[in-house]
């Protein structure tokens, strides 16, 4: 790791000020940033630790609205009793990220801001039509995720919370890579009064995306059988040593069927 | 340089270190506690697992200065003098190790796992919970056996359970 200057922010305002200096990066759980700095893929001049800012932590379920603070760890999301009862799909998703030690550090805000094309949370946010709240504005998930590791966040903008409405039904299913356990394809299905939204992670060559053909089929008939007849194109899907685009296209369908079955 | 002050195995320690110092290097090189191992150095293997504020974390993926102000427990902090912690005793009893390199991380992961599952553990849960710890010798069978036995022993004897910080 190259030399770096560490700062611990005690408030979002202080973090924003500290993050504006040099080539600073925000540090939340650090489960991506620290390994990236160790391999010198990232070499920020400064890191601003926001993990101990109390205002960024916690899960709140108020009526049908769920708000999760950006610095809430996967462990705390997975174990939150209110969330498990309101939107179990999100708690379940969090409980399968990485491993227990990673879940004790990694945060939802960090995952969302990083937008790894194989991360789990982006699929949940996109399918739930979530809102990403920052220190400057609110951004809909539709506008937030812009490609591989790219988001609508501007320099110095800090994700403060994630907000979404409780869906009628929702579930997430992923096919983890047998070695890394990252999603080779993960599908989040959500049915609400506004319709059905299906988001896919791990498969697209430009990051998380919505599977419109599957959405159309599920809007008519919310059942695993309805997905069976859909043909998912391999265009725009990733091909790598783990799986071809065609294999991933099939996984999209299989994971969507499993998610629908799980959503009930 | 930053000042890192934390409670390490119940003892307050303080040192000036480079900001880029990883927690595992602070523990091993600065504090001389070499029970915590560096295996893969890429957050996969879990040989470096320690407890920070009561939660198992990979100390190779955290800066020492991030842990400043926290309580850190390493494998050296588990036993009570010559009396092994119930998880350590179970690993010895059930031969839950061969070369022993992964063992400190396994034991720190196991004590954390047992703490998070006061309702008890079954084999499937233990295997799923060991996602972040790699052993290249044992094939895991005896590790799983040891953790299940420790979990039962600690549920019976309240003393051991209370000690699993």
Descriptive notes:
The complex is a heterodimer of chains A (264) and B (165). Chain A contains twelve helices and 14 strands. By secondary structure, chain A is an alpha+beta fold. Chain A is globular and about 55 Å long. The N and C termini of chain A lie far apart (48 Å). By secondary structure, chain B is of the alpha+beta class. Chain B has two domains: 2-77, Roll (Ubiquitin-like (UB roll)), CATH 3.10.20.30; 86-163, DNA polymerase, domain 1 (Orthogonal Bundle). Chain B has helices at residues 23-30, 86-93, 103-116, 123-129, 141-156, 158-163, and strands at residues 2-8, 11-17, 49-52, 55-58, 71-73. In chain B, strands 2-1-5-3-4 form a five-stranded mixed sheet, sandwiched between helices. In chain B, β1 and β2 (11-17) form a beta hairpin. In chain B, α2 packs across α5 (141-156) and α3 (103-116) crosses α5. Chain A binds chain B through residues 1-6, 8, 27, 30-31, 34-35, 37-39, 47, 49, 51, 75, 98-102, 104-105, 181, and chain B through 2, 18-20, 22, 41-43, 46, 49, 55-58, 61-63, 65-66, 68, 109, 112-113, 116, 129, 131-133.
Tell me the greatest interface.
A-B, 27 and 28 residues
Strand content of chain B: 15-25%
- The total strand number of chain A stands at 14
The total beta strand count of chain B reads: 5
Alpha plus pi helix count of chain B: 6
CA(first)-CA(last) distance of chain B: 30 Å
Q: Under the CATH scheme, which class of the largest domain in chain B?
A: Mainly Alpha
Neighbour order of strands in the largest sheet of chain B:
2-1-5-3-4
Our Rg estimate of chain A from Cα atoms comes to 18 Å
What is the N-to-C order of secondary-structure elements of chain A (H for helix, E for strand)?
A: EHEHEEEHHHHHHEEHEEEEEEEHHH
CATH level-4 homologous superfamily of the largest domain in chain B: [2Fe-2S]-binding domain
Principal-axis shape of chain A: globular
Q: Segments of chain B where pLDDT lies below 50 for 5+ residues?
A: 159-165
What is the spatial order of strands in the main beta sheet of chain A?
4-5-10-6-7
- CATH fold-level name of the largest domain in chain A: Uridine Diphospho-n-acetylenolpyruvylglucosamine Reductase, domain 3
- Number of continuous helical runs of chain A: 12
